[in-house]
Write a structure and sequence with these properties.
By secondary structure, the chain is mainly alpha-helical. Helix content is 70%, strand content 6%. It has one domain. It contains four helices and two strands; from the N terminus they run αββααα. α1 runs antiparallel to α2, α2 runs antiparallel to α3 and α3 runs antiparallel to α4.
């Protein structure tokens, strides 16, 4: 879900509306990375609704940090290199959050 939704929307918004580009291993935009972060947090919130008591200040902080970590990985790897670590890292994070 994170790779399909977050990365897909980040690329779409970044290409169409991105005004502040940056480059580490490939072209990215601040706007695209912001969209990736917001969509990833939203995915975490939706999936954490399955586990009672997870949505609390500490849980929200952990979700935000996890989304920030995934955003940093996505932002630092371009040209499709993020397609392997994003699902693996996202899956591990969700396993940790929901266990």
């Amino acid at each position: 879900m994170i790779l399909g939704l977050s990365d897909g929307l980040a690329g779409l918004i970044g290409q169409k509306m991105g005004r502040r580009p940056y480059r580490i291993t490939g072209p990215k935009t601040i706007e695209g990375s912001f969209v990736f972060f917001i969509v990833t947090v939203t995915i975490f919130l939706i999936l954490s609704g399955e586990k009672p008591g997870l949505i609390n200040p500490i849980g929200l902080f952990v979700m935000a940090i996890a989304a920030l970590l995934l955003t940093a990985v996505e932002g630092s790897l371009g040209k499709g290199w993020d397609n392997l670590p994003i699902p693996i890292l996202g899956g591990l994070i969700l396993l940790f959050l929901l266990s």
